[in-house]
Design brief:
Elements lengths: L4 E4 L9 H14 L6 H8 L4 H12 L7 H16 L6 H11 L3 E5 L3 H11 L10 E3 L11 H10 L6 E5 L2 H9 L3 E5 L13 E3 L5 H4 L2
Parallel strand pairs: 1-2, 1-4, 2-3, 4-5, 5-6
Helix pairs in contact: 1-2, 1-4, 4-6
Length: 214
């Protein structure tokens, strides 16, 4: 085995949440007077912690988002998750294989702990992720593209960064993995390969992951 720990991003890699959440984020920002298209939301916020939304809006407009922005947005997202969220194709199979092979893995997400758990419960992925395998940007001071979250996950799992590989679908996540000194497999299901050029290798289907780990 080439690695001692597989670190999964969550949104877009394990749960197919990016189309739902970015559609809702673009609509909510537009509703608040900050016109944003779905494509712009993907470009600016995919893979990022919520503080990036606040920071970019204030930087661009000089205006602060409402104090209850996160609460309202997450309420809409969780309602959409309950209606529509599905696991990413191949996620169940790769988690079953890693478990059977005894390969350590965890999830390190820009999303909140609540968002991760709501998504995992809805999709049935919670059976593979007890609390000790779940890490959120809430646990560290800075979200992606800073390396803090991935370094925190590696430390808690007891594995040196150079023995970890990250599975990511966002440019911010690839940057974070690189900054952490980890290899990173760029998942191109939603993100053009050209935007994940910093990845160690690219994959278009999670089924390819098993072969890349050996």
């Amino acid at each position: 085995m080439r690695y001692d720990l597989v670190i999964f991003d969550n949104d877009g890699v394990l749960v197919d949440s990016e189309p739902l959440s970015n559609t809702l984020l673009a609509a909510y920002l537009t509703e608040l007077g900050h016109p944003t298209s779905y494509e712009e939301s993907l470009r600016d916020y995919m893979g990022a912690a919520m503080h990036r939304v606040h920071d970019l809006v204030q930087e661009r407009t000089g205006q602060r988002l409402p104090d209850d922005f996160d609460e309202v947005f997450h309420g809409r997202v969780f309602a959409a998750f309950e209606r529509e969220l599905e696991p990413v194709a191949g996620a169940v199979d790769i988690l079953e294989k890693l478990t059977a092979d005894g390969v350590p893995y965890c999830v390190a997400s820009s999303g909140s702990h609540e968002r991760i758990r709501v998504g995992h419960r809805k999709t049935g992925l919670d059976r593979w992720f007890e609390d000790g395998r779940i890490f959120s940007s809430q646990d560290v001071g800075r979200g992606k593209p800073a390396p803090d979250l991935f370094l925190h996950a590696a430390e808690r799992m007891g594995v040196p960064p150079k023995r970890c590989v990250v599975v990511e679908d966002s440019p911010l996540g690839v940057q974070a993995a690189n900054a952490a000194g980890m290899d990173v497999f760029g998942y191109t299901a939603m993100t053009p390969a050209a935007k994940l050029t910093g990845a160690t290798q690219l994959l278009s289907d999670l089924a390819e992951l098993a072969d890349l780990l050996v």
